[in-house]
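Hi X.,

You mentioned you wanted examples for the new student's onboarding notes, showing what a folding record looks like when two proteins sit in one file. Here is a clean example. The first protein comes first, with its sequence line followed by its structure tokens.
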Amino acid sequence: MPRKSPIVVLVGRPNVGKSTLFNRMTGSRRAIVAPMAGTTRDALARPVVWRGVAFQLFDTGGLFGASEDPLHELVVQHGQRAIAHADQLVFLVDGREGLVAGDQRIARELRETGRPVLLAINKTDDKRSLKSALEFYELGFDPVFEISAEHGTGVAELLDEIVERLGARGLGLADSDALGALGLGLADTEIASPQPPTPTASDADREIRVAIIGRPNVGKSSLVNRLLREERVLVSDMPGTTRDAIDSPLLWHRRRFRIIDTAGMRRPGRVSGGGKVEMVSVALAKEAIADADVVALLIDSKTGASDQDAAIGGEADRAGRGIVIVANKWDLVKSQDPEFVTSFDETLRHGMRFLDYAPILHISALTGERAGKVLETIDKVAAARRTRVPTPALNRFVTEVTAANPPVSPDRAHVRILYAAQVGVSPPSFVFFTNVATTFHFSYQRFLVNKLRQRFGFVGSPIRIQVRRRAKEGGSGPRASRRPRPSRGTDRTRQDRTRRKPAKKK
């Protein structure tokens, strides 16, 4: 049983550079950095290893101070919850602005928590901060670190003090078990960004990455909190509440999941007009799709599937991710006509014909109705996309299918499938070797995919098909089958010697 990783929390007023320091210390770019106060809302967590000591670093929203964010009160509540569970606090202040009333208020509240506090004065690379930095010593915290999160100055010394304090209390010693739980390797000299865990032979031990995606205000954060059974991310009626991609580990029936809450994705035209923060949020959401094993595409049951829902689903399909379509807010429509479920699913399938392989769930994240089916279905889809078909079984399948329905090419050429092989999983990928260099007609390719699903499953996973011409003996190109011409050298001489000599006259 790995020991629990200690928690280090960055706290401070809005726009003092907490997200910049978070990215610097974790060696990543997971936190959105913008000059607008109140950019960070949810508490973002990432593992860090420094000089053999592992800990979880939390970036919180700005506490007190000026913020234009209408959700600032909720942000403060989440920040205070993270502070209550911290083993070490890093109080970040702005050296350019100097000591202000908000800093003094935060200092009083941090003292009341009884947690150990380190004071870090940021932006000290600016000459304007030389005099104002001295004002922060009156807060009474010792030691005080003068750093520049943007350029990295003084960050190593701050990390040294953090790990020294954690080590003095017996916290965060990076043994192999603890690092394995974090997905990290042992490092003792530099900042170590998290590395994905090495896949094991047992699928039960493999962590399944699940991205919760969809349009704004369809209930993604509510579903994440429901699955985690805690208020991990902010939830409000205001569209665009979530900005960062927040990932949280979850253990369900001895299966390990990592649930990733993403920002709502609007149409590209609206995103470009929404400012830098929204553009970065959508980019992080797309990155979460690319890194996921399975995505849960949330649909608002009240409005039904839209063109933007189809566009988001197409993004996941092109990335080869497993897909589960989740119709949320079902509690608001289930009292309608008994045939509503059938008509709803038919309309949804018609608008997303390319996702006909994705299962549909009807849930309510608010009430918890059928929410338990989400993880169960995701687990099945994750297993299906890792399925490998034995080559003999696959070729028996090819023989049966082509005997009843011979392949068709776009130019109507005579095509024979000689044999097939599965060349990859996640998603399942197959290569069909034929007698001529061609491709299958799109309708026949769709027919093959449907037959593969009927025979071998692959529920919720896209299937990739490639067509290749079988290589001839002695070469692999189209000229390999041609008979070689005799050269003017030895081969021609040999041919002359083998000619029949004319008979002599008597």
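Then the second protein repeats the pattern, sequence line and then tokens:
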Amino acid sequence: MNVSGQFPRYTASIAAPHAGGLSLLQVRDFVTRQWRLVALVTALAIIVGIAYLALTPRKYTAQADMIIDTKRVSFSQSELATENRIVEDASVESEIETTKSEKVAGVVAKRLQLVSDPEFVGSGESLKQRIFSLIWSIAPAAEPSSEEILRGVTSQLRANLRVTRLGRSYIEQIAYTSLDPNKSARIANAFADAYIEDQLEAKFEATRRASIWLEQRIGELRKQASDAFKEVQDFKSQHGIIIGVDGKLASDVELDQLGMALAKARAETSQAKAKLDRIVHVLALRPDPSKESLNIPDPIVTDALSNPVITKLRQQFLDDQNKESEWRARYGVDHQAARNLRAEMAALQRAIWDEISRIAESYKSEVQIAKAQEDSIERRMNEVFQQSGSLRQSQVRLRELETASNTYRNIYETFLSRFTQSVQQQSFPSTEARVVTYASAPAGPSSPKKSFTLALATLCGLSLGVALAIARERMSRQIHTRAQLEELLGTSCLAVFPALAKKRSPGGKGASAANAVAFKQIAGAAPFSATAEALRYLKVAIDLHPKGGKIVGMVSALPGEGKTTVAASLADFLARSGNRTLLIDADLRNPSLSKMLGYADAPGLLDVVANQTPFDDLVITDSKHKFDFLPSATRIKPSNSSDILSSPAMKQLLKSVKSNYDYVLIDLPPILPVVDVKATAHLFEAFLLVVEWGATSTDEVVKAVGTSSIVTERLLGAVLNKADEAVMRRFEGYSDRSYGYYSDEKPHSETV
């Protein structure tokens, strides 16, 4: 057992060891519970199958094979030619549907004179028609006409016909089912012949209609193409449109050339501006002439670096600079020769900067020339664009007329070519289908199939029986397993009390006497029995409560679930274990606990709360069960029981007894019928929910727990009471050995 209250034996993981899937043991238990229903449904399905075999007449199926030939024999220029063609899947399916068509079926019916065959007509009213006439009193139908008879025969022929494709081949299998084996073969062969004849007639008719239509259409297209070409030429003459070799106007060609020239001029202008900006930046670095500076100018400009004048001046400056350094070191700084060299160096420096300024002036001139050229090209481009603007709308209309003219001419040429081919090359009257194998009379019936029918009936019966069995279990809303209760509440199922043997009570009749008998049996259970072990689990759950809950409310969703018996049994077990235990009957409207223990007329809880009677004067120490008991009087049934139980006096009572007892158990009213538990839930430290096995529905349990959030938060766990262990083992999948650990105690078939 862990701190959270999960008990090893009663957790969902143990109760459903194969939660991820069905185990063989669970399947066995399901079959054990529902085998009668499954067997009954299966037997009924087999009986229906046998009846079907006995009542259904024998039918015979004959089959003819027909191939859709992929070769066509044609006549071209006085020679026979064979054309290979590819037949797509859609074409094969279309041929199959044609074979089953009403037209082909009508030809078969007339050729074999099936309108006078008893199998198709004159067989009298069917069972379905007789039943409908009895239910709705349908008047007898009038004598059908010949067209109605033929339509009925055709419908029956199509209903019994099956045309399929053999794999991915071009073979059609034409199968017909009839009561007579010879008749089925004749009808299958007749369908194949009728289909071939229908294809020949369709080709003749299609060729005749196509020739007439093509001849009429060619005359219309010839006139349309001629009119469209004349309209194009007239439009060009009216608007003076001249089209070049490449299909463009002259203005458009000039615009394209001007566009490329403008882009080139703009690039040259940008390049010239960049060179000018660079040399202006270099000139800004020219030193002040008033200040002495004999550093050699270093202009990083392409033309300046390659200029021969600047190169020569720089070289002369460097030579004078070397001489000046040598003479200054030899004769001193103020020597006349050194001064003359410095003066000459200053003159060279000014000459270099003057040459750079001259280069800058040439850059300015280049920028002006490039800008003027760009403006000139742009002005010319605008002029040409304005001149070509008037022709653009006309050109759009011209394109439309040319497109229409070309379309009419292409259509005319296409139709003329097809008409010429149809005249010069006529197809032979041949069809793409031929019979490969003619049908013969079958040796045996094709339906009904005995083995298949019985196997299908058995399988359907088993499937339906299993489905009904699963639905039967799913529709059950009662709780039968620990895992079901734990999943429903989200908490542990702390204990399971088995159903006890039903004994007659010598002291009286009714629910109180039955509870007394059940209480005696539980209290007198063997120390190592499953019942005693369940009580130990409840004690450990209370002891491990994280907040040390001593005041425990015993609740249930509905009356009669055994809450009172479990409360008294737990109090007896705790008292016999040497713990100071107080049991309070707080069900003021139906004090069944007081009746069960024999204190029905004794004053108790109502007197303590309402009349302020001292607790010590009213508490009863049960000499037999060793616990203290505070009864509830049966003489008075207050209507405001919730107000009494939630009063300050009740709160003070529970506070005072908490320090004097190890365990305080309160038998509360059921949750759903009355509001007492919801009103007093805040007074108790923990709750134990008692649920009757196989009786209380899941909806009632969920509704009861959801009535008060305090009950949900302080719920220690649930107790499954009055469980039929034999049935429960089948639901949970436990083996009988899991119960033999405790004692030789066996579950009883009758509950209290």
